[in-house]
UniProtKB/TrEMBL annotation:
Keyword rRNA-binding: no
Signal peptide coordinates: none
Keywords of this entry: Cell membrane, Membrane, Transmembrane, Transmembrane helix
Classification lineage: Bacteria, Bacillati, Actinomycetota, Actinomycetes, Kitasatosporales
Species of origin: Streptomyces indicus
Name of the protein in its database record: Ribose transport system permease protein
Places the protein is found: Cell membrane
GO MF terms held by the record: transmembrane transporter activity
Domain of life: Bacteria
C-alpha cells in the first residue's frame, strides 16, 4: 500500500506538469482576466477590450511566423526589422496607390525571408546568426529609405487601421484569419508534417528524402511575409511610418509568445493556439501593470519570469 502511494506521487506530479504545459497559458489568461475584472477600474468595457485586441494583433501575426521558425528548430530575429522595412516601403510607394504599396511591403518581407532561408538551408549558417545579420541590415536599410517619421495620409490605410466589421476591428479579423490559416497548414498539410519532421530531426528527415532545404526556405519566407503584414497593419493603425522605433524588440515579444504557448525551442512541435494565447497573456500582463501605474521595467521582469517558467516546464517534459 505504501509502495503504491509512493509511486502515485511522481505520477500526480507528472500529470500536473503535463496539464500546466498543455493548458497553463490558457489558465494564465483566464486568471489575469479575472484579476483585472476584480481589481482594475474600468477594465470591463468594450473600448478597453477593443484596444487590447488591436494592440496584440500585430504581435500574434509576427508570432505565427516565429512559431514556424522555432518549430523547424530555428529562430527568426529579423522580424522586428522587417516591420520597420515594410513601413518604409509603404511610405515610399504610397504614391502608386495603397494596394501597390502594401504588395511591395509584403514582397520586401518575403525577400528578407528568402535571404534568411537561403543562408540557413543552402550555406549552412546557423539561424540565429543569419537572422541576426538580416535584423541589423534591414533596420539600417529601413532608415536609409526613410530617415525620419512620416505621416501616412491615405483613406484606405486609415480604414484598414481603424475600421471594423460588426464592431470587430479589421486588424483583429486579419490576425484571426492568419492564425486559422497557419494552424490548418501545420495540422492538415504535407508541408506542416514535413516542417515538424525536420524540426524533430533534420538528419532523419534528410535520410527519409524530405525536401529539407525547400521547406526551410518557405518557413522563413512565410515568417518574413507575416512580419511585413504586421508592419503594414501597425503603420495603418498609427497612420505614420517610423522605421526607427516600429518593431523594436518585437522579436523578443514573438519568441516569448511562442515559448509560453508551449512550442519547444528544440523544434518538432508547433502550437498555434498556444502561441495566440501566449501573445494575449503578455499583452494582458503588460496592460495590467500599466493600469496599476507600475514602471515599464516591471513588465520586462514579469515577462522574464514567465519565460523562465515556460522553459523550465518544457525542460521537465524533456527529462521524462
Amino acid at each position: 500500500m505504501t509502495q503504491l502511494a509512493l509511486r502515485g506521487v511522481p505520477l500526480d506530479r507528472a500529470r500536473v506538469l503535463r496539464l500546466l504545459q498543455d493548458y497553463g497559458v490558457y489558465a494564465g489568461v483566464l486568471a489575469l482576466l479575472l484579476a483585472n475584472v476584480l481589481l482594475t477600474p474600468h477594465f470591463v468595457s468594450a473600448e478597453n477590450f477593443r484596444t487590447q485586441a488591436v494592440q496584440v494583433a500585430p504581435v500574434i501575426i509576427v508570432a505565427l511566423g516565429m512559431a514556424l521558425a522555432i518549430g523547424s528548430e530555428g529562430v527568426d530575429l529579423s522580424v522586428g526589422s522587417v516591420m520597420a522595412l515594410s513601413t518604409s516601403l509603404i511610405s515610399l510607394y504610397l504614391g502608386y496607390g495603397p494596394v501597390a504599396a502594401i504588395l511591395v511591403a509584403v514582397l520586401g518581407g518575403m525577400l528578407v525571408g528568402l535571404a534568411n532561408g537561403s543562408l540557413i538551408a543552402f550555406i549552412g549558417v546557423q539561424p540565429i546568426v543569419a537572422t541576426l545579420a538580416l535584423m541589423v541590415a534591414c533596420r539600417g536599410l529601413a532608415n536609409v529609405f526613410l530617415p525620419q517619421l512620416k505621416d501616412v495620409r491615405d483613406p484606405t490605410m486609415a480604414s484598414l487601421g481603424s475600421g471594423s466589421v460588426l464592431g470587430i476591428p479589421y486588424l483583429v479579423l486579419i490576425a484571426v484569419a492568419l492564425a486559422l490559416l497557419v494552424a490548418f497548414t501545420v495540422k492538415r498539410t504535407t508541408f506542416g508534417r514535413q516542417l515538424l519532421a525536420i524540426g524533430d530531426s533534420r538528419p532523419a528527415a534528410q535520410l527519409a528524402g524530405l525536401p529539407v532545404r525547400r521547406v526551410l526556405v518557405v518557413v522563413y519566407v512565410v515568417s518574413g511575409a507575416l512580419a511585413a503584414i504586421a508592419g503594414v497593419l501597425a503603420t495603418a493603425r498609427l497612420t505614420a511610418s517610423d522605421p526607427t522605433s516600429l518593431g523594436t524588440l518585437m522579436e523578443l515579444s514573438a519568441i516569448t509568445a511562442v515559448v509560453v504557448g508551449g512550442t519547444p525551442l528544440s523544434g518538432g512541435r508547433v502550437r498555434i493556439g498556444g502561441t495566440v494565447a501566449g501573445a494575449v497573456l503578455i499583452q494582458l500582463l503588460t496592460a495590467t501593470l500599466i493600469k496599476h501605474d507600475l514602471p515599464p521595467s516591471w513588465t520586462q521582469i514579469a515577462q522574464a519570469v514567465v519565460i523562465v517558467a515556460a522553459v523550465y516546464a518544457a525542460r521537465e517534459r524533456g527529462r521524462r
